[in-house]
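thoughts on both lines:
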Amino acid sequence: MSIADQRPVNSGFGAKSTADEVLSEINLNGKTAIVTGGYSGIGLELVQSLAKKGVKVIVPVRSPAKAKETLAKVAGDIVTHETDLADIASVRRFAKEVTASTPRLDFLINNAGIMACPETRVGPNWEAQFGVNHMGHFALTKALWPLLQSSKDMRVVSLSSTGHKRSGILWDDIQFNKTPYDKWAAYGQAKTANALFINALSRRLRDSGGLAFAVHPGGIFTPLQRHLPKEEMIALGWLGEDGEISELAKAGFKSPEQGASTTAWAATSALLNGKPGVYCEDCDIAAVTDPASPFARFRGVDPHACDDAAAERLWEVSETLLNAA
């Protein structure tokens, strides 16, 4: 759960593997999963793959009408509950309902997120990306704690991102109360928080035999980009001047099916037994970023996102914020 643990294990899968391929030889029949954001993008792909394997999937949904429309096309045992990760009371209601009706939870997949949105406040004046991506999932995990502790060998997977490279935790001004809002710094902080949360959580799951992992799913075109204007995506190289997907993006980006694969691998692979808290990418444990590599911006995990002391500090800060919510 520290830098020394970030060593690839040669899983046999890779960047272009799909979730179906990762799960093809694994028996998951009768297991139960919660997948936040499970009705769009890579979350929807993961729900489909899990459901095909006989997993009961519980999906918290902020937009019930949209969820009903998209999940109606998915075969399997899928249950939805109206929930908003930006509303802690809503998160706690969801956890109470699930705990009352679910004897065991095998997978908690913290998949939902927002990226590079305009400055927005949620909950008790939290910056939205930190508030939704980190605090919403922190609150969910805490509210489900009795169920997590009683479910031996369960796994928690939280989606981080290579975006963590943009910023560590802004300890002096997490909520951008004193400094001008920077949407990419806020996103980077939130993605670092997702990884550090997993680092700290892995120690707290030790007694129950649970494991926790952070995942970078890869670059994928999904509704996550909805806040980015076309001009900015052209400037980033994701789109060409004609507004179509660029050759660079075609070469480097994944399909949603491929984007769900590392989450599926982290949730199920026996190769991760005894390796709590690691950060994964391309269906393997990520190596520590090599600053000299031409791919340093896109691959590997930066030391600040797998630092034990920072993880414990963030856990304490998050507890204080949640208790005041």
